[in-house]
Q: What sequence folds into this?
């Protein structure tokens, strides 16, 4: 269903050229495929939907204003997400609440290995279960429980399916950092979701947490 | 001829787990991890659970964006002459 990458790139390059030449009203067509991507990237940092929406809109306008700086060899979607991340971070700095949260976040260095706390074996969750509000809520809650640096990489790589390289570029960090943070993010997400998922989603059975060793 | 696998502890498995899921571990580490999974139900549970989570969050339906977000974005861009 999706057009092959080369074709998308060619069409985008054309659109970008025309917009640069003055056909501004084509901009919406250019960014439309990336709306969700931009919103999720914003949400990973600002954490509430109202702010994320504002950040997304601002990021789009910034992208338009800076379109002349976009280099054709780069990937447009990654560039757009990068702008969004920067906009979201600026927004957070302005937000006074962020002052308190950054104290709680503790060290930003990725130190020590994350050890899972739960070893129950999950049965496969059918995708239809996604339709259920409880699972969506549990996912959103689990995501919100992560520290920002882990949430960011998880949303870009695992939710939005950017590559490791694209994730690194969008966040302005090394690929090694992306990988280290992903490890923690993924294991933490699994632990955060475990209580609801073992059996309960499909069979309504009792959940028993299996303690390590 | 089968190789003698050097067993690795669970914490090494956890350390490599994310890269393993990315197919980004060297052959030796991969072999050791797979031998470990055969013997260790806890680590297998962690592996399966993590895969499960990744499959779910990678599904487009797992996170909803606000209704009308798209509409409001369009309206905003239209107002600025950036949409038809």
A:
């Amino acid at each position: 269903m999706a057009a092959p990458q080369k074709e998308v790139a060619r069409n985008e390059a054309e659109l970008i050229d025309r917009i640069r030449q003055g056909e501004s009203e084509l901009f919406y067509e250019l960014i439309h495929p990336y709306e969700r991507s931009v919103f999720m990237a914003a949400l990973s940092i600002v954490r509430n939907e109202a702010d994320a929406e504002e950040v997304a809109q601002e990021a789009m306008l910034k992208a338009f204003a800076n379109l002349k700086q976009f280099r054709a060899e780069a990937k447009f979607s990654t560039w757009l997400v990068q702008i969004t991340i920067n906009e979201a971070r600026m927004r957070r700095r302005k937000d006074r609440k962020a002052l308190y949260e950054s104290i709680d976040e503790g060290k930003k260095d990725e130190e020590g290995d994350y050890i899972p706390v739960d070893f129950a074996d999950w049965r496969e969750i059918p995708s239809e279960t996604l339709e259920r509000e409880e699972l969506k809520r549990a996912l959103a809650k689990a995501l919100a429980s992560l520290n920002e640096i882990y949430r960011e990489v998880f949303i870009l790589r695992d939710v939005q399916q950017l590559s490791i390289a694209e994730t690194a570029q969008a966040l302005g960090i090394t690929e090694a950092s992306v990988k280290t943070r992903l490890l923690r993010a993924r294991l933490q997400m699994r632990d955060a979701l475990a209580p609801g998922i073992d059996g309960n989603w499909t069979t309504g059975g009792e959940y028993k947490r299996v303690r390590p060793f | 001829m089968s190789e003698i696998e050097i067993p690795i502890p669970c914490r090494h498995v956890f350390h490599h787990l994310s890269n393993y899921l990315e197919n980004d571990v060297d052959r030796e580490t991969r072999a050791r991890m797979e031998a470990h999974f055969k013997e260790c139900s806890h680590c297998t549970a962690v592996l399966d659970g993590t895969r499960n989570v990744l499959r779910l969050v990678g599904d487009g339906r797992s996170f909803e964006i606000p209704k009308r977000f798209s509409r409001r974005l369009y309206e905003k861009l239209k107002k600025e002459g950036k949409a038809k």
Remarks:
- The CA atoms of residues 17 and 47 of chain B lie 7 Å apart.
